Each structure stands twice: as structure tokens, then as C-alpha cells.
Amino acid sequence: MDAPHDVVIIGSGFGGIGMAARLLAAGVRDVVVLEKAAGLGGTWRDNTYPGAACDVPSHLYSFSFARKTDWSRRFPPQDEILAYLWDVARKHGVLPRVRFGTEVTEARFDEEAAVWRVSTAGGGELAARVLVSACGQLNRPALPAIEGRDSFAGTSFHSARWDHGADLTGRRVAVIGTGASAIQIVPEIAPRAGRLTVFQRSAPYVIDKPDREYRAWEKALLAAVPALHDLSRARIYASYESRALGFVKYPGLMKLMSRRFRRTLRTQIPDPRLRARLVPDYPMGCKRILLSGDYYPALVRPDVELVTDPITRITPSGVETGRAAYDVDVIVYATGFHTSGFLAPMTIVGRDGLTLDAAWRDGARAHLGITVSGFPNLFLLYGPYTNLGHNSIIYMLESQFRYVLGCVRALRETGLAWIDVRPDVQDAFDRRMRERMRSTVWEAGCASWYMTADGRVVNNWPGFTFAYRRATRRPDPRHFRAGRARPVAPARSGPR
């Protein structure tokens, strides 16, 4: 086998591109990014459905080290976010290090050589001293287990695999799901479809989205005076961070935001019967709060119908509930993602043959959401306990970049072959997370994608993002077991 690379990163979304950029800036040159698709971008490459956009303002949904002052809108659309990621990859030297069309099937820690042996779907293999998973939490579409789903004779697809060849003009379209993707899709396709039927299992909380285009003079001013961009970013951060009080400390404060929801609903839905069906039956914040200024107006169109009866089955001609049958030509599954597997479907094997599936049989666990005991020199980005309900995940990722970079530096400077977080440290962190999670709104009595099948919330960070940044400011040597390096062949200076 070729000499091991210093760092191999799996995935080229925000996590993978940002981590590679920070490593290169710190002088770690032998970095390889493995991407299973033909292009980079992660979720912003995959989700190209009509209306796809971010619900975090653009000035905050971007890297602090890669300022962009010419966003077209306050809330960035999918195509601009994807273009931004390509731009960052080019300007920071990441793009030449990305191997496209390279899907990782297995990574196995070779204890004798102290490297990760990474196998790919094409039969290739490479070695890495450090392995970073930047796969994200929202990358594997979930299709509902509905009887007869495969029998449908028309066109059907998941929102994250949008069929741009399907002409919806004048067609009878069903959208199954009313989550973050659906509320963006419905307003976009309603004017084109002949008839749109929206199947709602659980009503979401939707509040108005204060979106608008940036004026030319605003963009010019931001470019000319960088401090204004920094000030805008800080102001948005502070505003969003304050919401953590309601999510993680005092759930009763969510009643204040609930008033905003009810005001939006009352203003945009004049029919009291329809309005009643759009009121959630769980506390606000327990599931993801959605932002939209046009979802509710789309539901009052005469050619749009909201169905709240449970779907019993799908037939060759459409969708059936216990009360009615709906003949449709196209079914769009806006049904979310598999969110608790993190590194699935890859096989990850650590020390003593321990598989990640076995280590996580009772739920995903990782110290600070980054390191897993028994898996030396493996680092997760956007792992367990690092998702947010109130702020920008980019801020969390940048905290993780610094922590991982600190670990890589420690390995290089001390001559260690590997570091492995101690099991007692990981267990103590996991206990703290479970204890703190009990007071959060996410455990207030609803089922959400934040939860495992047994009801544990393992996705979200139960605290302030600045507290997470403080906790990850540098790796603590006392938290790790370590092994000394053996002589190895010199690493290459760059990718092949």
C-alpha cells in the first residue's frame, strides 16, 4: 500500500471543505477529501427542490474565515450556498485534494501500523494517520413505510432526489410530509400543479420568515467596510443565541415565540377550520421550528388541499386514507432523513475489532460529539449532541475544526502514533448530556428526528453555542490514551 496520508476526510459538505481548509492553512498539506458524488456540497448539492433555501441568515451561515458580502438575499438560496462552497474550496486549495466518485464502504484501524485502512466501493484502498468523518446528519433520505409504496404507477421521488425531468404543470401532485423541505416546496409548485394535495401527519410550527433581497448599495458597503459585515454577523449571532434560553434552559419562554406563530397563523389562514388543523399538539420547539412567509398562503389556494387523515396505503393510482382515495400523477416524499446513524452505512472498525455499530448499540455516543472511545485518531464533525435548534451549525463546525486541528498538532508535535479518548471521559460527558437534556424543550413530549427509536435525544447540543466553543477550545491531554509512533514511510506532500 502507498504511504499513509496525514488526514483523510470523508465528505465534502460544509464540514469536509471547512476542515480541509483549516488544516491546509495550518500547514498540514497531505490532506485528501473523499466524496462519493460527482460534485461537492453535501446537503446543498443534493437538495435542489424548488424553493430550497437556508433558514439561517447568510451572514452567519458562512465561514468566519471566508467572508462573502454579496449574498443576494438575507436567507441564502440553495444555488448560492452551493456556489459559495465551490468558491471556498477553490480559494483555499481544497478542490485539488477532493477525489470525486469515491464512496467509502469501510474504515478499519490497523493497530500494528497505527493507521486507518479505508476501503472504497470501487475496490480501492488508502491509508490515513487521521480519519475525519464529515458525513453530516441529513444525508440519507428516509422513505415512509407505507403499504403499497412501490406499487404507484405514476412518478414518485424523495425531495432530496428531486426529479427535474418531471413536469408538474397541470398535474395532480401529492406532497407527503410537512417538514422543513415541504414548506418550501409547496408554495413553489402550487401555481404550476393542476391540483396539489398535502398530506400532514403532524402540524409544524411555522413562523414568518423575514427574508428580503439585499440592495446593491448594501452589498457595496459591506464589501468596502469589512467591519460592517462582522457587525451584522455578530448581531445575528447574538439574536439567535438568545433563543437558547427557551430551548435548553427555560422551555416556558417558548410561549413568547408561540405568540408569534399564532399571530402568523391568524393573519394568513382566515378559515378557522383549516387554522385548527394547523395547530400543533406539542410544545413549541419540541420539533424543528420552521420559517416561511408563503407556506400558509399556499394552503388557502382553491387548488390546494390539506389532508390530515393518516395514510393507510398507496395504490397504483394514488394515496388512500381511512376516509378517501386521492388519485394523483406525482408523489413527492418530503419525509426527511435517517438521522441517528451518523456514519452509516459505512462499516467502521476500531481497536480490538470493535465495530461502531456495536459501540453504539444503545445509541450514538461521542465525547464532545467528536471522538469515540475505542476508535483512535477518528474524529466526527456534526456528530452526536452537536445539532442546534436555535443558531448556525457553521459556528459549531468551526469549534470542531479547532479541536480536531489541536489533536492533529498534538500527534505531529509529540510523535504519538494515536490518541483515543478514555471511556470514562466519554461516559461522563454522555451522562452530563442526558442530565441536561431532561430540562430542554426537545424532551417535552413529542417524537422528532432528534430522537432515537427508544426516545433518547442524541442529535442536539443542550446548551449555548459559546459554551460548546469554550469546551472545545483545545483538547485536554488528560482525556486521552495514547500510543507512541513507529517508524513509517514518509508521507507525500500532496494528493495523488
UniProtKB/TrEMBL annotation:
<dbReference type="Pfam" id="PF13738">
    <property type="entry name" value="Pyr_redox_3"/>
</dbReference>
<feature type="compositionally biased region" description="Low complexity">
    <location>
        <begin position="485"/>
        <end position="496"/>
    </location>
</feature>
<feature type="region of interest" description="Disordered">
    <location>
        <begin position="477"/>
        <end position="496"/>
    </location>
</feature>
<protein>
    <submittedName>
        <fullName>NAD(P)/FAD-dependent oxidoreductase</fullName>
    </submittedName>
</protein>
<dbReference type="InterPro" id="IPR036188">
    <property type="entry name" value="FAD/NAD-bd_sf"/>
</dbReference>
<dbReference type="InterPro" id="IPR051209">
    <property type="entry name" value="FAD-bind_Monooxygenase_sf"/>
</dbReference>
